Amino acid sequence: MADWYLADASLHEGARRLPLFCFFVALIVAFVGTRVNVRLIRSRVRWFGNVSVGETHIHHVVFGVVLMLLGGVAGLILSSVSIGWYAFSAAVFGVGAALVLDEFALLLHLRDVYWQEEGRTSVDAVFVAVAGTGLLLVGLRPLAWSGSDEALGGRGTAMAILVVNLVFAVVTLLKGKIWSGLIGLFVPPFVYIGALRLARPGSPWARWYYSEVARRPKPRRMAKAVHREERWRRPVIRVKIAIQEFVSGRHDVPSSQRRSRRS
Where does the chain cross the membrane (predicted)? Predict the structure, then answer.
């Protein structure tokens, strides 16, 4: 394991791999720890409670922002000093990122939706961050970029491949295929397939090209997209929600119970 992270025993190689690994582990551990804590608060375990200053409830996103700032600035200072300290600053940044992403829905909606349906967005954000970091950790690079033009056949070829992959990724995301688009940034075949397939019925692409308000409506494609959504997408979403709530706790509880929630 150590040989994989510190290949060639060079500062560049270690600085590229070990800090990213520490960020990855810290992100996962901090997120799981945070969710355990808030679920204990929600269960009214007496030795766990919210953090407040006077009558002001302090959300843990505040601590996350502070830790991200400390970890980010420390990383800038320590990156050329020591791999160990650089990795430590990356871990601090990872803890802060977990705290911020765990309340991503609050930042998105500008209101406390932690245990509401909209609160699942926070779990999605953490899953995306973990998946993206994991793909980087195993050596994949966005849009097939490897860090050198020669690896892609010269500067012109490299730029052409990057632009084509980016276009396909944007189209895939506009078609509402979020996971295909994000994974496809690292594994391009996903965006090629996603861009060619039908859009999801609620996506911007479907609204622009399939719906009744489109310049040239395509009711058959919209009907086919709706059929696919009901037959294939909704069962997958139910499984995803089950996994989310296994990890993060059940959402959509009565409003009277939401008032007793966590930090």
Answer: 20-38, 58-78, 85-110, 122-140, 152-172, 178-199
Its sign, for the CA torsion 27, 29, 30, 35, is positive
**φ and ψ at residue 141, rounded to 5 degrees:** -130, 145
Q: How far apart are CA 196 and CA 245, in angstroms?
A: 32
Q: Dump pLDDT digits (tens) for 19-70.
A: 999 999 999 999 999 998 888 888 777 666 677 777 777 889 999 999 999 9
Structure tokens belonging to residue 219:
């009711």
Q: What single letter denotes the amino acid at residue 245?
A: E
Per the DSSP assignment, residues forming a β-bridge with 52 are 57
Q: How confident is the model at residue 114 (pLDDT cuts 50, 70, 90)?
A: confident
